[in-house]
């Protein structure tokens, strides 16, 4: 089964199973201020092709609404992106979908960053979980996923994203930061042990660190 088959199956299953929740969210948005339920915007997709992303609207006149604040905290504002998955604009797990303005601001429109655009943007991903800030950390998170993606990494990202919907982004990100510091500490200890073995003439490569338990290296700002 290809990744595209998994995306289609996940999108159909998600739209069916989560339709009652999505209808309740739509009703809450409509009842709060009478405005439109969905927010759409042009984003840059695979091979830099533009597409229209769908989200539940969380703002009104440049201010976050009460319903919108809860949607953002739980990540439920992303649920309409299942439609983008079904159309093939996005995949379940991948780099953060950016606007043209984001791409220019980060300086990712040159050949040196071409690898990032070889995959579809994701509904969830490392950058979405860690909320990478700044060009350097955001690039590390996206490049780390593109180079190390696989079913094990994807399963970890999906599990953490599900936890966000239950306990909120703030708690999950706090836990990930703790795991990241623990992984960095283990990596330092392994490097010291390797140096000691090398000095004793029994060189052995150190064990690589883990990205918050995902196994793709340490996150550095």
Question: What would you say this structure looks like, in words?
Answer:
With 221 residues, the chain is mainly alpha-helical. It is built from nine helices and six strands. The chain has helices at 3-17, 19-33, 66-74, 81-87, 100-106, 126-130, 135-148, 151-167, 169-199, and strands spanning 38-44, 50-56, 59-60, 63-64, 91-93, 122-124. The strands form three sheets. It has a two-stranded antiparallel sheet. A hairpin with a 5-residue loop joins strand 1 (38-44) and strand 2 (50-56).
Helices and strands, in N-to-C order?
Answer: HHEEEEHHEHEHHHH
Number of helices: 9
Q: What value does the Rg take, in angstroms?
A: 20 Å
How many strands?
6
**Cα distance spanning the termini:** 36 Å
Residue-averaged pLDDT, rounded? 86
List unreliable stretches of 5+ residues: none
Strand content: 5-15%
How many separate structural domains?
A: 2
Largest sheet: 2 strands, antiparallel
Please estimate the helix content.
40-55%
Silhouette:
globular
Q: Could you give the order of strands across the largest sheet?
A: 1-2
Judged by helices, strands and strand pairing, the structural class is mainly alpha
Q: What keyword list fits this structure?
A:
single chain; 221 residues; mainly alpha; 2 domains; two-stranded antiparallel ribbon; two-stranded antiparallel sheet; 9 helices
């Amino acid at each position: 089964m290809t990744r595209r088959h998994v995306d289609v199956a996940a999108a159909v299953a998600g739209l069916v199973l989560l339709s009652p929740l999505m209808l309740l969210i739509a009703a809450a948005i409509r009842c709060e201020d009478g405005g439109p339920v969905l927010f759409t915007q042009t984003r840059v997709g695979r091979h830099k092709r533009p597409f229209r992303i769908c989200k539940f609207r969380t703002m009104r006149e440049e201010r976050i609404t009460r319903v919108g604040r809860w949607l953002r905290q739980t990540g439920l504002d992303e649920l309409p992106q299942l439609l983008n998955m079904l159309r093939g604009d996005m995949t379940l797990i991948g780099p953060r979908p950016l606007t043209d303005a984001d791409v220019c601001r980060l300086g990712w429109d040159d050949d040196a960053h071409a690898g990032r655009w070889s995959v579809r943007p994701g509904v969830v991903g490392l950058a979405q979980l860690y909320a990478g800030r700044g060009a350097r950390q955001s690039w590390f998170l996206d490049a780390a996923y593109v180079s190390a993606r696989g079913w094990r990494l994807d399963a970890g990202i999906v599990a953490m994203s599900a936890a966000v919907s239950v306990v909120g982004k703030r708690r999950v990100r706090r836990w990930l930061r703790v795991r990241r510091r623990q992984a960095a500490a283990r990596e330092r200890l392994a490097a010291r042990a390797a140096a000691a073995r090398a000095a004793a003439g029994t060189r052995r490569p150190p064990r690589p660190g883990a990205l918050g338990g995902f196994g793709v290296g340490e996150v550095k700002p």
